[in-house]
């Protein structure tokens, strides 16, 4: 096993907060690049954490109130701030400068908390997003692996895969905005030869074709139904025209040269409560398979949110890559900025403003 000094290398670009929940205590361990680790006993316990996870899930299921004022969700996010995130942020002030990146490495029940969205949610209140740019990692070694660089071609191979009407779904569940979304992505990317763009939709978006696109392209954008199989997490899948593209299919591939994946599908970053210590979901599965930087969703996302966030994200990403070349290491900041722009739009409910999360480098 690696020695601690080797694991500290994972914190080279910012501190990592490992969250540990057990029957005896709930703790946060802050791992910095050059300093000794800091251990914090959090003012919560396993039962309270389980109650909070349940409260968050119930709050998200409820309809948005007027102007997106979701009282139950705000209450849960406040509780998460007080019991989990605020004690960590207070200790980060001497380690990480304001506006820099941090990585959450949750275990157990912490896997089901949208830690990036914690805050006081009141006038002039504090929140983690005001102070830091949050990303997640399933493990320290996964983050170290995601930072390994490869020789890159001058032209980025980018595949946009969309399926609006997968096998077994009725016309009522057809995703109406898949085609416009993929065309929007195309319009926001650098022009050839900087990016070589492939679009796969409708009858062409089969499991076999999607697997080939995964193999041949190092940048990916999925716009489709995504399902979480709680009984068999490895059967969680992107739904294609003929049959599902499962997490098991993905994890059997070598995607170690892949830089980025945007998962514009429902529940792509939701784990399984029955196995909370195993981060088995579509976004983490792509990262384990080698994709360095992944955007996923914590719960159901609406078409309106996707359209706005996709536009803001790719515009930000292009703007942050000043030389016109895509850089996956700018994805977390691009998402952070996109989410802040959504927060300024009063007609976007709170649950939709915080639904996307970043995993990886």
From TrEMBL:
<dbReference type="Pfam" id="PF12770">
    <property type="entry name" value="CHAT"/>
</dbReference>
<protein>
    <recommendedName>
        <fullName>CHAT domain-containing protein</fullName>
    </recommendedName>
</protein>
<feature type="domain" description="CHAT">
    <location>
        <begin position="76"/>
        <end position="346"/>
    </location>
</feature>
<dbReference type="InterPro" id="IPR024983">
    <property type="entry name" value="CHAT_dom"/>
</dbReference>
């Amino acid at each position: 096993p690696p020695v601690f000094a080797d694991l500290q290398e994972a914190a080279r670009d910012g501190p990592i907060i490992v969250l540990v929940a057990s029957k005896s205590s709930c703790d946060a361990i802050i791992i910095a690049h050059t300093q000794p680790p800091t251990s914090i006993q959090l003012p919560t316990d396993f039962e309270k954490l389980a109650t909070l996870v349940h409260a968050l899930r119930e709050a998200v299921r409820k309809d948005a109130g007027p102007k997106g004022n979701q009282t139950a969700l705000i209450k849960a996010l406040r509780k998460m701030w007080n019991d989990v995130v605020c004690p960590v942020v207070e200790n980060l002030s001497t380690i990480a400068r304001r506006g820099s990146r941090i990585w959450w490495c949750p275990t157990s029940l912490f896997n089901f908390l949208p830690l990036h969205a914690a805050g006081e949610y009141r006038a002039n209140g504090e929140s983690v997003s005001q102070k830091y740019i949050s990303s997640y990692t399933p493990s320290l070694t996964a983050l170290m692996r995601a930072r390994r660089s490869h020789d890159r071609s001058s032209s980025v191979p980018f595949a946009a895969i969309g399926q609006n009407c997968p096998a077994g779904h009725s016309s009522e569940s057809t995703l109406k905005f898949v085609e416009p979304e993929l065309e929007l992505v195309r319009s926001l990317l650098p022009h050839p030869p900087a990016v070589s763009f492939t679009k796969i939709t409708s009858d062409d978006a089969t499991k076999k074709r999607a697997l080939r696109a995964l193999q041949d392209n190092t940048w990916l954008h999925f716009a489709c139904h995504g399902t979480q199989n709680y009984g068999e997490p490895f059967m969680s899948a992107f739904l294609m025209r003929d049959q599902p593209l499962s997490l098991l299919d993905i994890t059997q591939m070598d995607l170690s040269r892949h830089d980025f994946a945007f998962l514009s599908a429902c529940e792509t970053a939701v784990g399984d409560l029955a196995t909370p210590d195993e981060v088995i979901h579509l976004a983490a599965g792509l990262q384990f398979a080698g994709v360095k930087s992944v955007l996923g969703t914590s719960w159901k996302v609406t078409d309106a949110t996707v359209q706005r966030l996709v536009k803001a994200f790719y515009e930000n990403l292009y703007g942050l890559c000043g030389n016109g070349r895509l850089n996956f290491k700018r994805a977390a900041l691009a998402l952070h900025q996109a989410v802040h722009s959504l927060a300024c739009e009063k007609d976007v409910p709170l649950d939709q403003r915080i639904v996307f999360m970043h995993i990886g480098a």
